[in-house]
Specification:
- With about 190 residues, this protein is mainly alpha-helical.
- It has two domains: about 100 residues, no CATH class; about 90 residues, Alpha-Beta Plaits.
- The protein is about 50% helix and about 5% strand.
- The chain has ten helices and two strands.
- The protein has a two-stranded antiparallel sheet.
- The longest helix is centred in the last third of the chain and has 23 residues.
- The protein is flat and about 60 Å long.
- The two termini are about 40 Å apart.
Length: about 190
């Protein structure tokens, strides 16, 4: 919204640094799981930006006990002004969980670079999560399947499904991700 109002893209970090920052959400997930598993939730009272947001939404002003939550809330708002889907890309623990989900062959985005217009990058520029589709590489957890890349490609080079059969290692990795995801769900349910 802010970028549309100022009619220009606001400065952000380089693509390489952005990809490294995307790893923060995995750390956030691990920290949150440890806090809940070890029973430290009461010690972190007032640190949730969502509590601050919900209080503000209902018309209450959070007191000084929510200072850490205020700071995190403001940082998220600033980040969202600078980068589309800032929270989802860099901080959301659920994004880390979704990245663990098995990627099935029919949901893989594939791009035939041999037919691309040289230096086009329309799909990469349009992508709200800065995902680069590479041939013969399965979607990473960052791809949200919004299909904007498919719509913007002037040569219609991007399509779902790689047309390849799964190899032995790929099947094992999909099954391991599935087991890990089910394990995390069972662990979360037990808390």
């Amino acid at each position: 919204w802010v970028q549309k109002k100022v009619k220009k893209k606001l400065p952000w970090v380089s693509e390489e640094i952005g990809r490294k920052l995307q790893k923060i959400k995995y750390i956030m997930l691990l920290v949150l799981m440890l806090i809940y598993a070890l029973g430290f939730t009461k010690k972190f009272h007032g640190t949730s930006p969502w509590e601050v947001f919900s209080m503000l939404y209902t018309g209450k002003i959070p007191d000084a006990g929510y200072l850490a939550g205020w700071i995190i809330f403001v940082l998220i708002l600033v980040g969202m002004c600078l980068k589309e889907r800032f929270f989802c890309q860099y901080l959301c623990p659920m994004g880390a969980i979704f990245a663990w989900l098995p990627v099935l062959p029919f949901s893989v985005l594939d791009r035939d670079r041999s037919n691309c217009i040289p230096k086009c990058r329309a799909c990469e520029i349009k992508c709200p999560v800065d995902y680069q589709i590479k041939r013969d590489q399965k979607n990473g957890g960052e791809c949200i399947h919004c299909m904007q890349c498919v719509d913007v490609c002037p040569k219609q080079n991007i399509h779902l499904g790689s047309g390849k059969k799964l190899k032995g290692n790929e099947i094992i990795i999909i099954l391991l991700k599935l087991v890990l995801f089910i394990g995390v769900c069972i662990f979360a349910q037990s808390l």
